[in-house]
Amino acid sequence: MPEDLAERLIAASELQGDFVLSSGRRSSVYFDKFRFLTDPELLKDTAEAVATLLPEGISRLAAPEGAATLLVAAVALETGLPIAVVRKEPKAYGTMSQIEGQAPPGAELALIEDVSTTGHQVHAAAKVLEEAGCRIGIVVLAIDRGGAKHLRDAGYWVKSIVEVEPRD
Prior knowledge:
The chain is of the alpha/beta class. The protein has one domain (5-163): Rossmann fold. The protein is 35% helix and 30% strand. It has helices at 5-13, 34-37, 40-53, 68-79, 120-131, 147-153; strands at 14-20, 26-31, 60-64, 83-86, 99-101, 108-116, 135-144, 158-163. Helix 6 links the parallel strand 7 (135-144) and strand 8. Helix 3 packs across helix 4 (68-79). The longest helix is centred in the N-terminal third of the chain and has 14 residues, at 40-53. The radius of gyration is 15 Å and the shape is globular.
């Protein structure tokens, strides 16, 4: 992992102002994940860093639907591991699946998220995968602004590239 990756992720994504977070809380700091997920060099370095955090035995990658799918796709290109994407709700058409892609029962997954403040979206995705018979071997957060604590409290092994002290 490049030594300056954490600094580069923060420099690219940290915004100051008045923001409403996905949790509904207000914050004077916001991490705009698209500022690092859409920069090819920063995305590649982040994917490489995530790949180095994966333990032996991981057979699949997964992410909650949304921007994290950009990161999980980059990690898949780095590792050669297949991907699953967990929808917030099952599709109302076609396969009517809540899990898209590669998540067969018994698979050992790395669940990957871009920025996590509360851990709720990742935890919801983990529960869907576990109900489908998968095992969450690790949760990897690019930027942890507090979500890792909640995920650890729920029993998950969590690693982060950047840990930011929760503010506000």
